[in-house]
Amino acid sequence: MRIWRLGLLSPWINRKIIDPLFQIIKKGAEPKQLAFSTALGITLGLFPICGVTVFLCGMAIAILRTRCHAPSVMLANFIATPIELSLVIPFLRLGEVISGGPHFTLTSDALKKWLLVEPPEKYYSLYPMRCWGG
User: Fold this and answer.
1) Is the pLDDT higher at 2 or at 87?
2) Domain boundary assignment for the chain
3) Quick check: 75 and 21 in contact, CB under 8 A?
4) Neighbour-count burial of 39, counting CB atoms closer than 10 A to its CB (0-12 exposed, 13-18 middle, 19+ buried)
5) Is 69 helix (H, G, I), strand (E, B) or coil?
6) Contact at 8 Å (CB) between 39 and 64?
């Protein structure tokens, strides 16, 4: 089902987002279950460590089993990915404020130094997770 005309993105959006959404709706899942599953997928999809969200959603699906609709959880997680990536730097800065840690400069030289020189106990990348977790 074609809805949008966005040039080059139109086939990709239809194939990856719109068509799976319509397939989920056509299969007859209950609205409360779909709403809960979508909220769960977006909430877990905003976890500030990239790549972990798929495992979190998989664990939630395994734990909740029939109480959530697995395809809608994963679709919402997929849709939340751009939001997650755009929130990494604000989570990093807020985590620095909450933990009182030093300011982490975001330049290529600082990143290279952090990866190659700094000792492992100085993993500042945990600041976003501290902010998200409270």
Assistant:
1) 87
2) 9-86, 88-133
3) yes
4) middle
5) coil
6) no
